Each structure stands twice: as structure tokens, then as C-alpha cells.
Amino acid sequence: MFSDRAKIIIRSGKGGDGHVSFRREKFVANGGPDGGDGGKGGDVIFEVDPGLNNLSKYRFRRKFSATDGEEGGKRRCHGKNGEDLILPVPEGTVIYDAATDQVICDMSGENKRVTVLRGGKGGLGNMHFATSTMQVPKFAKPGGDAVEIEIRMELKLLADVGLVGYPNVGKSTLLSVLSNAKPEIGDYPFTTLNPILGVVTGPDGNGFVMADMPGLIEGAAEGVGLGHEFLRHIQRTKVLLHLVDPLAPEEERNPVADVRAMMNELSKYDEAFLEKPFVIALSKADALTPDLLEEHMKSLTDAFGAKAEKILAISAQTGQGLDELKTTLKSLIDAHSADTVVYESEFDPMERLAQELPFTVEKTDEGEYDVYGPKIDKLMGYTNLDDEKGFAFFQNFLVKEGIITELKRQGMVEGDTVNVGGYVFEYFE
User: Fold this and answer.
1) For residue 225, what is the DSSP state?
2) How far apart are CA 157 and CA 255, in angstroms?
3) How many CB atoms lie under 10 A from the CB of residue 329?
4) Kind of pairing, strands 5-11 and 63-65?
């Protein structure tokens, strides 16, 4: 089954905790600290897989996690790093943050392999905290936290030409004649339920990619029919090819009205479509009398001659006009080779995490001061305040991180009560 959207939860690995231990060897009295560092948590990496053309891999599984780093060991042993999680996606997949709907990365162009979440750093073992004044550190750093976010993935196919038109105008037939694609073809509405890509060999021997979009109908931009399911796929195309059927059975339908309706739907979804160069191809020319063919071509030229790059009469059955069509499309693609849309990153989950780490200082109604936040929680997680050296480390942290400065800025004076992460102290100079 074709699947071009998915919503999943991804989680990087937590860093392994640093270890607290001391040398205990025969004939070595009072051995020093030898607790090893924890291993780094695994990253979450997205990688383009040229063998994929949809996101069905993520259709039935909701959560994907990298592995955690292992805790450090005694004798300065480093914990094993967590394994990275590599998620394969087809080229053209855009990854969004589900909460903000901002682009995290676009797996297109040069973006073949992107690290979206980094694993937590391994915590330092107590061997790093020994000093001349603190020779028996009884604490170690915990590993960095894992990061978990919900993302939305959307596949926007990378094609040079977007083939658009009403159902049953002959798009699938044309693509099958021009390229190596083998779409299902039949005489009923919405024959093509999935976008079909075909490689068309140009007149110079070089190929270009054409995407057959499922038939659009009026209201597609609002999601009527299959509208929203497929309009996203032609946002990246360099050229649009409007295929119109002069033999449409509906009385209100005619080639000029069909092109106008398609352009209206495309512009309502994204006005950038109006800036793309377009070609109009009148299909089934072999089934028209010379007079009727001339009448249709004149009406199209009168309506769109000033805007369209070219208006052609073609026949997929006899091959009429197909060589000229390929030549026209290839020249337009070459002229707009730099126009492929690659979405810029708007959101970095790791930057958001960094912004959440600073502390907060608040003065309560009772005149006390509360200091809290993720950074404080991490500090209290690896500091032993019952140990004299650990308490000295804690005091030094408050100074180095600017917490004492912020408390004084808010009016703290000697004798005031300060609550730091659940521990209450009285401040003295």
C-alpha cells in the first residue's frame, strides 16, 4: 500500500551514568577513585534509501528508540555506547515537529543522512573529581537525558514535471508511452490512486522524471476527493504539464475550462504553483476533425497563449506531437534546473532542549527564594550534599552558573532562606 504520511515518536538514547568506586587492591592502601565514565546514548538518524518510494514502514509502528549508554564500571572502565537508530526514508521526505509543525529537515538534495536527535552524553565517573583538597569524591555525574519528540513525516515526491488534469483525460496512458512507468489504466474515475513516477528519455538522451498525479477535481485544495493527498507531491516540480481532453463527456467541460479549474485548485493550495512554467497538451488529437482540432487550439491559445510556455496537440495512440512535447519539457527543465524546492530547517530539537536547561529563580510571597529547573534537577541528581566535599562542589556550582548573582539581583541578602531543588538553606556571605 502506498503511504506518503506518517506520525511517529522518536527517542534518542540516555547517556550512561558515571560510576563511583575506589581502588581496592592488595598492598595498595587507600586507593584513589577509579569510577569509569558512562557510555554515550545512541543518536536518531534519518537516511535516504533509494530503494524506498513510500512511508509504509512506519504505518503500523508508533515508537522508535535508540539504545541507552551503559553505566561506567570500576577500574576506570568506560560504559558501552548506545547503538544509533537509523531510520530509512525515501528521498523527498520532509520531517516536521508534530507540536509546532515546523520543518526539522528535508531529506532532499544534499541531505542524504541527517542526525535529528543526539544521544545523551555519558556521565563522568568519580575519577574525574579528585583534587588535592577532595581526594575521595563520593559522587559521579549521571548520563545526559534522552530526548523524545513526536514527528510528522510527509513524502513530497521529487519530479521534474508534474502531470495534472481531470480524471480520465489520459495521463496514465501518456506517461506509459513516454516513459518506463506501467500505471494501471482503465476507463473509470480515479484509476490512479497512487502517484506514479516515470523516467522520460529526452531528445538529448538524458532523462527527466515525470509524476502522474491522480485526477484533480474542483475542491481538491480543500481536500475534496483525493485533493490534499496528492497536491503536495507537485510542490517540488519545476514544470507543470496540463493535459486536457477535448472529448470530455460532461457538457460544462471544455479544454479552456479544465485548465482554469486546475489552475484555480493549484493556486488555492499553494500560490507558488502560479509561478511555475506550464505547458498545455491537448490529448486525443487523432480523434478530432481538422476543423475541431483547430477550434480547440485557437480557444486555448486565446485564453493562455500569453502565459503558457507552449500549447501542443498530441496523441498517445499515434505519437503525434510527443517528440515536440519531450523537447519542450526538457528545455524548460534545463532552464529551471535550480528551482527544485528544498525546505530549510526551522526547528532543531536539540536547541530546544538546550533552551529548557537554564534555571529559574523566583521570590515567594513569604520572602524566600526558590531555584528550580532541569539544570538544578541534574545537579541534585549527582551531588552528595551530606558529604563535605560534595557540598563544596554544590556551592561552587551555584557561583559558576550565575545562580548566586541572579539571587542577589533579585534582592537576596545574608540570612535569607533559599530553596534549591528541594534543599533549604540559609544564605551567608
Assistant:
1) T
2) 27
3) 26
4) parallel
